[in-house]
Design goal:
single chain, mainly alpha
């Protein structure tokens, strides 16, 4: 009778050729990447602030009041 943990028919898989090819083609994951995209941070900040201001202007013009600011009489 063969037990559950009996390793007599265990055949380990050895795929060294596949891993060697990946190392040759892929390169090092820690290589530095040169990024040439320039960012205009001031422009991005202005656009974000403008969008936020438009939101608050829309809320004020809608006369919406949150429940926390209403007084119960």
């Amino acid at each position: 009778m063969q037990g559950y943990y009996d390793n007599t028919e265990h055949h380990p898989v050895q795929d060294t050729a596949g891993t060697m090819d990946l190392k040759k083609e892929g390169g090092d994951d820690l290589d530095l990447i040169e990024h040439t995209i320039s960012l205009d941070v001031d422009k991005m900040n202005r656009e974000k602030i403008d969008a936020d201001c438009h939101l608050w202007d829309a809320l004020e013009s809608s006369k919406w009041l949150p429940m926390e600011t209403l007084e119960v009489s």
